[in-house]
Amino acid sequence: MIKLTGLSKAYHGNQVLNGIDLEVKKGEIVVIIGPSGTGKSTLLRCLNLLETPDAGSLAIDDLQLNLADASEQQAIELRKRASFVFQNYALFANKTALDNIAEGLITVWKQPKAEARATALGILEDIGLADKKDAYPASLSGGQQQRVGIGRAMAAHSKVILFDEPTSALDPEWVDEVLGLMKKLASQHQTMVVVTHEIEFARDVADRVIFMEGGRIVEQGPPDQILVDPKDPRTREFLRKVLK
To answer: Tell me, what's the pLDDT at 196?
Structure first.
């Protein structure tokens, strides 16, 4: 369903991503792990054209494009197929939880406002936040804000949802509620690519775990292989540090 070829990105001469190839099947849960600063979040942002790569091509569903020179319309079409969940929530501070979810349906999908709000309310009910429909982000906990952010991605019925360290900004008490919602999506066979430091989540949910370092994919495979018996010494050293 997703085929990424030759993705490269440099900042001021620093090569952050170096010729990455990646394929994701429909319904697959891919979790990306690795040291901080190794290009994991940049990879996700390039997949959604929040960052413009220096090179790379992407095919997702029926859309094919050269990421380095994609047009604004192609970027819009890509984002219809690939929703993004930000680590810092990225909600509109001046909009309620309901309107945060409905906004994209109105502006991107051109749904009538009443229809979009009805869809948003249904999603809030699904994620357990219907009672917060009129609440603004400032009055919500971090976990509630991130669940609204995930609800916004759900509303688009995207082919894939990209999660950029969705629990990294949360206080520990809110992590489980966000991971619980992600597990629910996984059980519904929602295609997901997740950058995270939550190794147990990767162990429980992922179909495939990718270890990245130095802007490259070092090793990938099923969780039982990568997290239990990795072949590359860099993967083993990383896991030794994070699991000690």
So the answer is: 96
